[in-house]
Structures are given as structure tokens and as C-alpha cells.
Amino acid sequence: MSAMPRIEVCVGSQQLMFFNTSNDMPTCYPISTAEKGIGQQQGSGQTPLGKHYVRAKIGGEYPINAVFVGRRFTGEIYSPQLAKQYPNRDWILSRILWLCGCEKGVNRLGNVDTMRRYIYIHGTPDTEPMGVPYSHGCIRMRNQDLVELFNATPAGTLVLIKR
């Protein structure tokens, strides 16, 4: 029986590590977590810590750079022209791995519920920086990296977010 893949997000190093099996060397990706730091509270704009799992995978049937609002494909494909048209959008592109907390009172239920906070691993424009905290709470990735991760990650995959 093979081990379930797992994801570890290290906020300090701004890296996401994907372990395909328990004894596998991880595939490492640069990421961008919240500009406002780490925290669990609803409305904080911070990235939550702790044990999570991938609750839902969204967007696998759409092209790279597909634009999502409210977890729905808008019909748009991101481009510099679209960015100029909507300069204040928080771009959610290509794919969404929607996270759900596993720890009651830490990242699940009440004011600290990761799922109800709509915390995702998602794509972002290639012009956005990686390796520095810059998101609104989610974990941003390069689109090509995200598609690779999305394709290798089943729903239910454990996601550990640590300092």
C-alpha cells in the first residue's frame, strides 16, 4: 500500500514541499503567503497555521491563467490587458486547492475556520513576487507549478502549514 501524498508549507522560508510518498524527497516550490503574517482569525488577512487537508480541487478542466472569482471560472484568461482593466483584483488563477482545517478551535469552526475563510493554494500572475509574503491570506504559487501540484494532489491530501 502506498502512502498518501502530503504538502508542507513553510511560511518562514516561503516554500511549499510536496511529498509524493512517505520516504520521497520532496518537490519544492517557491510560494507567497500573507503579507500580514500568520494568524487564524476570520478577516485577519493572515495565513493560518496547523494541520489542514485539501477539501476540494477546482479548475482542472480550465486552461492555465483561467480567472476565478468566488471559486467560479469567469470565462476570462489573465493577460496584462485584463490586469490594466481591473487593477485592484486579487487574482486567483489556473487552479484552486481549497483547504479545510483539522484542529477544532485552531483552524476549524468558529472565528478560526480555514474553510470558511476561503484559504486556498492558488495561482497568481507571473508578475507577482514569490519567496516573499504578499498575499491576502492564501498561499500563492506560479501557475505552472500549481498545475503540476494540482495534478499530483488528490482531494484529502494533508497540508501542514508551519512557521
From TrEMBL:
Residues 5-162 form the L,D-TPase catalytic domain. The keyword Nucleotide-binding does not apply. The active site is at H122, C138. The keyword Transferase applies. Pathway: Cell wall biogenesis; peptidoglycan biosynthesis. It comes from Zooshikella harenae. Pfam families: YkuD. InterPro entries: LD-transpeptidase, LD_TPept_cat_dom, Transpep_catalytic_dom. PANTHER family: L,D-TRANSPEPTIDASE (PTHR30582), L,D-TRANSPEPTIDASE ERFK_SRFK-RELATED (PTHR30582:SF24). Belongs to the YkuD family. This is L,D-transpeptidase. Keywords: Cell shape, Cell wall biogenesis/degradation, Glycosyltransferase, Hydrolase, Peptidoglycan synthesis, Transferase.
